[in-house]
Amino acid sequence: MEQPIFTTKAHVFQIDPDTKKNWIPASKSAVSVSYYYDTTRNTYRIISVDGSKAIVNSTITPGMTFTKTSQKFGQWSDPRANTVYGLGFSSEQDLQKFIEKFKEVKEMTRQAVSQTPPIPPSTNQNSASQVNGNEESQSPSSSKHANSSQPRQFLHHRSSSLSAMQQEVYLDGTTDTSKQDVNLKERRNSFNTPNSPNNSSNNAAESQLKYENDRLKLALAQSSTNAKKWEVELQTLKNNNARLTAALQESTTNVEEWKKQLAAYKEESAKMKKKIVELEKRQSGSEQVAALQTELQQLTERLERVQLDNQDKQDEINQLSLRLSELSARETQSSTLQNRCKKLEEENDHLRLKVEDLQRQLSERNMSHDQESSELLRLEDQLGNKVTELYEIHEQIISLIRKESHS
């Protein structure tokens, strides 16, 4: 299970695969770039998702290096993805924090590779001081999440770490007892960390839900791409299966014809042998006997060639049969993949229908809102007309009163 241990905002770029010089923007705006720790595989990854597309998915190795090229920009090379990633930050402090976290995670990865008991990096306020020796506080949300996840992360390493503490050997081949004591104290302090309050657990749950949402978006995009690949592969397997089946039928037909020819040659050879025996008994015409013997030898050679051809064709039939069985197995696997594709398509259709239903409800609400607005305008017009009529009646009454007063 993967857990986010550090998150920041940055603009993501990738190097141009053609020129290897220009940067191509991978995100339209600043997106979340996070470090994730996989407790099962004991690996670290840098992940960034823009909408439903994973624009960064880089597994950190001990050989990686993060290079600061300007005050707010840095880059690193990922040999597995065969690309170079670039990050543009809003401030130099954010870039420095990311670089320090990169160094810390790379050191943890190096210890895991050298079979040192792994210690997941903390994201509390003193995480930066573990790399450079100076204290630099991080955001409250990341420190709370680290405090809530430390007891779970260190629990399964405690027994092996304490038992191997006296035998820990570093890369230079020497043991350092003072560093062992410091590590032992840090591990003991990590187990004595008090439980975090409810708001930290809520933040951890929100981070986990956000990570699961990103993983689902990534899985949905990958499933659509894999479905298309599986359909193409299934069609190719069907075409190959049809061609091999036709070739096998043709080879079977040719073998039957060769068997008939072989039987005819054997029958003709037996007849020639009988003729030779009869001619030898009669002792008439040595030239005739020699001609028959020559013809018999030729027939024998033809028979041997036919037998060799028959053996070759039989081997070819066996190979075609093996390939046909392999294709049948692959076709069965492809049918399974096709069923998965159908299920994914059904899920996509269900989601599409749900979106259409929501859109329809939104349009209905908009229509009702428009109707209410038009009705309100109509009532306002009527009210205005009534006010105008009342004003006219008032003027008429005043004029009548004035006339009566003059009279």
TrEMBL record:
SMART domains, per database record: WH1
Record's signal peptide: none
Primary site of residence: cytoplasm
Coiled-coil segments: 220-361
Family matches, as PROSITE patterns: WH1 (PS50229)
Pfam assignment, any one: WH1
Location relative to the cell: Cytoplasm; Postsynaptic density
Bias type Basic and acidic residues, positions: 178-189
Compositionally biased tracts (Polar residues): 111-152
Keywords in alphabetical order: Coiled coil, Cytoplasm, Synapse
Domain WH1: 1-109
InterPro entries (UniProt xref): Homer, Homer_EVH1, PH-like_dom_sf, WH1/EVH1_dom
Molecular function as annotated in GO: G protein-coupled glutamate receptor binding
Low complexity: compositionally biased ranges: 190-203
Region called Disordered, residue ranges: 109-160, 173-205
Cellular component, GO annotation: cytoplasm; postsynaptic density
GO BP: G protein-coupled glutamate receptor signaling pathway
Record PANTHER family: HOMER
Family indicated by similarity: Belongs to the Homer family.
Record protein name field: Homer protein homolog 2-like isoform X10
